[in-house]
């Protein structure tokens, strides 16, 4: 498991092209929101269709109209999500509004059959008594927020377009300080992520996190944060500005 | 090379790629579509570089998003279309049913045993049937099949009521098939419950009419669509049990993996069940309630059973090896 997966709701999937993509899994809350939107859309659609049928009923007769009404109800009930999720959007209108998409666990778009399975299984997910208790329990206990229908169809719900990370400028690096010891790839990643995200946190939070690795930075408190920033800066930009002299100077500090 | 250099050097290429993908996403014909695979592979390499050189989250997220969009465009599934439907009817569906013949036996037993048990129980003791149907159920059976012959035809005299009943049977019966299928997800318990319940209830209704109603009006009504409808329901039960058994007995696969494989195998069954039940709805809506001599109705009904059985047993036998 990579460091991003420990820190985040990201899941890595390797494609046939030999590259790993990261998918951001959607949790139960945002999906519940999408469900509510869909419910609203369906109610509105049924209302509008009902009005039109009422008008058409004058010409066609009440029995024919109630028949058509039953067919519409049937399609809305079972196939509204199937049609949309199997289509080019890969999402119901509600999911699309929330920026979600349903895909196969291997990253590719879902098939009609999968859309059918995952939505028909809703019948079980919605139990007991339409509380979605089973679905939520399954979501929370599976690694990828899959409800039972997702498990059966082999699908996951992800954020379609990853929202760009909020751009809050992290404190500009004052200097580039070389790493005192060799770090593993994951440790280096964690260091860079610390720098990338530090703009999101308060000064106190930064210090709190940086204090966990005093062994690397050598000092606690704000000075430690600055040192870590400078090290991350060195890792990312070392080819351009990391004069050897600084390394020597830093070593001097270490030996004191 | 710093992240900035990397971005600066390639950003033009990424923009061109993004424009291409956006064009293809919109579904319009695009003269540069043939460039997509090459550009996609380049993006994949860029993403790998960003990952291994640790250029940071911002660049990674941007390229990650671009790769996913391209991947979705390239692997967008083609819908089956006409050819797919023909092969489904001419061999894939009956072959799928025959391949699961054990499940067919199981689901048939779960339905037919209580069905006949309820009918037979009427001869000795009506209390079983009375407790299953309840007062309201018995009253409605009385109303439909109580008195003179083919009474049900009179309930259909108003204009459009045949069509309305057809729609109702689609809504109700196909919906029941889907619930039977979904019930498999509860380790098969839901599937077995629905099959058993339908067997008991239908058996009770038939037994009640046999005993106190007008059996001919009942049997002439149901015989026409019974073959499609009941076999369709049993096939839906097979689909549900296929899923349920994968949960109970995943064999050598991890349980979730076994579940995914099982739902793939159950798909032709549930498609077929829905089609059969929809056909039953056509017959039940437009034929079964017509005032037609009983002999013809029985004849047509029997022919239906023979045809459906022959279809499921015989059609596509030469293609069986392709299913594996």
TrEMBL record, chain A:
<keyword id="KW-0812">Transmembrane</keyword>
<keyword id="KW-0472">Membrane</keyword>
<protein>
    <submittedName>
        <fullName>RDD family protein</fullName>
    </submittedName>
</protein>
<dbReference type="Pfam" id="PF06271">
    <property type="entry name" value="RDD"/>
</dbReference>
<feature type="transmembrane region" description="Helical">
    <location>
        <begin position="70"/>
        <end position="91"/>
    </location>
</feature>
<keyword id="KW-1133">Transmembrane helix</keyword>
<dbReference type="InterPro" id="IPR010432">
    <property type="entry name" value="RDD"/>
</dbReference>
<feature type="transmembrane region" description="Helical">
    <location>
        <begin position="39"/>
        <end position="58"/>
    </location>
</feature>
<feature type="domain" description="RDD">
    <location>
        <begin position="26"/>
        <end position="154"/>
    </location>
</feature>
<dbReference type="GO" id="GO:0016020">
    <property type="term" value="C:membrane"/>
</dbReference>
Automatic annotation (TrEMBL), chain B:
<feature type="transmembrane region" description="Helical">
    <location>
        <begin position="295"/>
        <end position="314"/>
    </location>
</feature>
<feature type="transmembrane region" description="Helical">
    <location>
        <begin position="189"/>
        <end position="210"/>
    </location>
</feature>
<keyword id="KW-1133">Transmembrane helix</keyword>
<dbReference type="InterPro" id="IPR002798">
    <property type="entry name" value="SpoIIM-like"/>
</dbReference>
<keyword id="KW-0812">Transmembrane</keyword>
<feature type="transmembrane region" description="Helical">
    <location>
        <begin position="101"/>
        <end position="122"/>
    </location>
</feature>
<dbReference type="Pfam" id="PF01944">
    <property type="entry name" value="SpoIIM"/>
</dbReference>
<feature type="transmembrane region" description="Helical">
    <location>
        <begin position="269"/>
        <end position="289"/>
    </location>
</feature>
<feature type="transmembrane region" description="Helical">
    <location>
        <begin position="163"/>
        <end position="182"/>
    </location>
</feature>
<feature type="transmembrane region" description="Helical">
    <location>
        <begin position="230"/>
        <end position="248"/>
    </location>
</feature>
<protein>
    <submittedName>
        <fullName>Stage II sporulation protein M</fullName>
    </submittedName>
</protein>
<keyword id="KW-0472">Membrane</keyword>
